[in-house]
Amino acid sequence: MVATFEPKTDYKVVGTRPIRHDGYDKVTGRAIYGGDMKLPGLIWGVCVRSPHAHANIKSIDTTAAEAMDGVFAVITGADMPKAPSKLVDLGEGNINFKWASNKLMADDKVLYRGHPVAAIAAVDRYTAEEAARKVTVEYEVLPSVTNVVDALKEDAPILLEDLVGDDLGEDVTNTNMAAHVRHEFGDVEGAFASAAHTIEREYNMQMVHQGYIEPQNATAMWDEEDRIKVWTSTQGAFPARTQIAGILQVDVSRVKVTPLEIGGGFGGKIPVYFEPLAAILSKKSQRPVKMVMERSAVFETTGPTPGARMIIKLGADANGKLTAATADIWFEAGANPGAFIGPAAMCVYAPYEIANTRIDGWDVLVNKPKVAPYRAPGSPQVAFAMESAIDELCENAGWDSLQFRIDNASKEGTRRGDGVLFSKIGMQEVLEAVKTSDHWNSPLGDAPAGKARGRGIANGYWFNIGLKSSANLAVNSDGTVQLTEGSTDIGGSRTAMAMHVAEVLGIGAHDVRPTVGDTESIGYTDVTGGSRTTYATGYACWLAANNLVDVLKERVAILWDINSDDVDFNDGVFSSKAEAEKTIGFKELAGKLDDLGGPANSTGSVDLESAGDGFGTHIADVEIDLATGKTDIVRYTVVQDVGTAIHPAYVEGQLQGGAVQGIGWALNEEYFMLDDGRMANSSFLDYRMPTTLDLPLIDTVMVEVPNPLHPYGVRGVGETPICPPIPAIANAIKEAIGTRLYETPMNAGSILKALK
Amino acid sequence: MHPFAYVAPGTVDEAIAVLNEHGDRARPMAGGTDLLVKARANVWELDAVVDIKNIPELMNLSVGSDGLSIGAGVPCYEVYENSEIVADYPGIVDGASIIGGIQIQSRAGLGGNLCNAAPSGDGICPLIVYSAVARIASSSGIREVPVEDFCTGPSQTVLETGDLLVSIEVPKPAANSGAAYTRFIPRNEMDIAVAGVGVFVQLDSSGQNFESARIALASVGPTPILAATTGNSLAGKPVNDESIAAAASLARDAATPITDMRGTIEQRKQLVEVLTGRMIKQAVERARG
Questions:
Q1: How confident is the model at residue A91, as a pLDDT?
Q2: Class assignment of domain B5-50?
Q3: What is the CATH number of domain A36-144+215-294?
């Protein structure tokens, strides 16, 4: 039985905006990131990477590198433990250890440009790099494929000869198709036959990257006891431990992962890259080994999100009711299976109630880096297709696209495209908030000469996840509380956790000192991902705090020589049920604990099946220079159901950050691939993410429909806001220039072409 | 990155001696914002980096009655924060103030931008249209090369082993002249030109007719290009939309871009035409004061 909670409004700490606990260390440069790691005897590791996107390795000669002064260890694919082909759930996507291992270090074949073929540990970084250049590799270059259409052609080069694809339950071999799934409900054909209005369009999107500032890094020490200590930038110390142990084929308890501060992740720091390589180099050299990735390798070999080809067909009756939809979705997986077609299917129709639907999704291998989660993985792609098609359907039929979205909005009981029925959700409330928002009710304004303006809206959705979290509390004698929790902090979550504890205990947010634990100081906790952290780890903190209240009631009972059942607790004050005037505050009690049984500690843990869905709608105003094709975003508003905002400033930050990443994806970001499978723009100069000068202040409207599954009503908020920007901007561009774009990026070149 | 020696000579002769000693395995460093990136990426394998910022002549910035002298090591911010340069050489300020971001501009300068010889170098077209000359020192003395002849290909210049750029000399613009530079970038800052256009115009005393013009184009050829025919076409023409449009169209023809990740041939030619028109108008506005 899932516990449910009634919404409250009389919070003391929840809903306030305290300064983040890690703030001073971060702005003064004292916070410790992976790049800061120093250990006695530390040496540097680097990779030797394939210059080819697809090639057989004929031979590798490492003798010249090994002979160099200052080189301590050289490894190749032959040094990788043979991990079994086994699927393990990491919370936001699965991992197969054989492929995960092969992704980090090629066996006899390279599958993407930059694929490591050897790694070297040396006394310093430059010696290691010099040694890397002395490794000679003989390749037999193979033709490469870098998009889903080419990859599925009859005569396409095959990436993984031993792949057995799953085509609707049938095994297929000699294929780049890892999976083909289908979800079908109602009478789709019949509904289209009787529809008054239909539309069918194809949409294509280039692969994009999370673009975190801090590159991947890892420091590892494999000691004489065969214990492996790893310090790394990760979105989950425990899932990192699972991966490292699986790839190295050792028990999880042999691996200790200490998570350091993270300079951005967005999902891309869920998979491990350097950790197992640094560990093997350490075992060989008997020294701690540090590896920090260069930016070009971050782009070429880590976590992009899938490029996509999608065909959407919609049908509506004469009254503007959506009656039928089909979606065919091909996603690039990169060099190993796992392209997030599952989440894409869950998200594509989620904002709408449609009786008759079919979804087909294909997970397709291409010679590009294996994709990694990126903020609502799979959802921004299908949102681009679906929300563009919705607007075009409305244009053709002469319907107001906001009213159409309201009339067809999903609600409690609506069936999602993959069959799940929604519980209490806020899509309708969000759309009503759009309708009454200042932005929607303000005129677009006149464009200067030579420019044109347009406004677009679009919905977005992420289902959010729950899963496992742990938290520990200990009371200090000065009335403060130590909180140790397992969620690595990528967006201010430590403070949100502390606020959960403070709210229960009736103390201030800064009376709680939060620490992110390593894998030997806190219980298992899943990734910081899936927008689960504030929801699930916050829930665990709430439980731990309530458990601490119970512990403290026992101590008050000792103090007053009464039964603990006769102790009340409200707003930080313990009182006697029998004698109401007999009270003691939390802080005073904390000072007396030494005489009342000693240390007072508690713990809380959860494993939550559901989380509460997140819906949002964005409004984008664009201004386009008709002579150059350049788009400026002149006004932008995010409206989202956030459940309850624990720390509103961080919630706003998530809404703004998601919008900004979506804006970059819409306008300029792309993997610009050359014919030989190389990425041409693997630098922050040419991979054009927006800067502050490219953006207006992103306005936010937080709609609060408390989530009944969380004690304070929290819904995950981090991922939904990256879904609407791409179609909202596509719809705005259409209004501005009269032509619709069906491909991303919608950059100046594409717009100039459309204007011709 | 290959380990290199850091040398910081105090005179031009000392610098030239080190450069001669190491040949193409040594490079002069001004701001270092291109050099260090190339060394790190192993584009250049260097044995010595010759920091020129201790050589007084190369750090000299002076504005006089006969023109502007910019030492090879003078950073951009010194150029655009100088009120005399802002008043008399606005086209150069246009370029200097958009190279990189503010941090880059406090190290990087026009001398380094010129020697880096990127087809997109935002500092170069303005120097070309102002008829600037590069003063180059070597063991055999000083020679002068017009800036439009300085770059010979992408990252290639007339500089030979042992050559050191000392300064860039910009003649004082005549009365009734004005100049401007802009580029098209997909973002608003911190980006590299898809196309760039610099324009210098000399009007007659009425301000209604062009006496002469120089137009230079960035990112549409292997080097920044002096579009001489385009500039010359304006001589004697009245300042009006028709003559400006005709020149912009000629600039489009003068551009010889390639298609790459930053833009297509068609897009770049279109941008050259658009930006040329806009920059002629801005230069005229400045010429008229």
A1: 66
A2: alpha beta
A3: 3.90.1170.50
